[in-house]
Amino acid sequence: MPPLFQSYSAVILDEDAFMAKLLEAILISFDFEKIIITHTAEQALQDIKHAKPDCLLLDWLSMDKKELSFARFIRCGQESPDRSLPIILCTGHTDIRKIVAARDNGVTEIVAKPMSPHQVMAKLDSALFKKREFVETENYVGPDRRRRSIPYSGEERRGKFGLHQDQIDAIVDERTGERADG
């Protein structure tokens, strides 16, 4: 296998030194050029600013939301060093609410623990080589949450046989004096 990641660098943010070293060993086996391990968000932020890594591997170890707050800061913070930095979350907390929360906070990929090198490779490949469009809206900043784009090949129905959403909203505004969604 050719060295896919020989010129890539990563920051690993993990409170657990053993898990951080395990993840580092996986990245070394993939020929990452530079790997920085840190155990605090403050240090990770400095490392991201100075080293300008290609990705961040973030562990969701505790049950609180501080790791997601860090991911959200990278995506939306005024002082963020790189809003589009790929963030790979490593977690054993895989219930649907936590996965949706991670996605909605701009996490690029999620690796479920216990993780294998194969899973880490697949997520790195997706985050670094098969990047999704980066989206910045009022309510969300991060990679497009849709994984696939399926072109619609059916007949166009909106506007052709009915009203567009803005036309519907205008009618509702006239009748109620306010918008239905606000």
Kindly describe this structure.
It is a single chain. The chain is α/β, with parallel strands linked by helices and 182 residues long. Helix content is 38%, strand content 17%. The chain has two domains: 9-143, Response regulator (Rossmann fold, 3-Layer(aba) Sandwich), CATH 3.40.50.2300; 156-182, no CATH class. The chain is built from six helices and seven strands, in the order E-H-E-H-E-H-E-H-E-H-E-E-H. It has a five-stranded parallel beta sheet, sandwiched between helices. A two-stranded antiparallel sheet has the order 6-7. Strand 4, helix 4 (96-104) and strand 5 form a beta-alpha-beta unit.
- Total DSSP helices: 6
Order of helices and strands: EHEHEHEHEHEEH
Largest sheet: 5 strands, parallel
The overall pLDDT average reads 84
- Which bin fits the share of residues in helices? 25-40%
Quickly give the structural class: alpha/beta
CATH superfamily of the largest domain: Response regulator
From the 3D structure, determine the CATH topology of the largest domain. Rossmann fold
β content, as a range?
15-25%
Q: Kindly provide the radius of gyration, computed on alpha-carbon positions and rounded to a whole number of angstroms.
A: 20 Å
Counting DSSP E segments of at least 2 residues, the number of strands comes to 7
> What is the approximate shape?
globular
User: pLDDT below 50 for ≥5 consecutive residues: which ranges?
Assistant: none
Largest beta sheet: what is the strand line-up?
A: 2-1-3-4-5
CATH architecture of the largest domain: 3-Layer(aba) Sandwich
Our count of domains comes out at 2
For the termini, the CA-CA separation is 55 Å
CATH class of the largest domain reads Alpha Beta
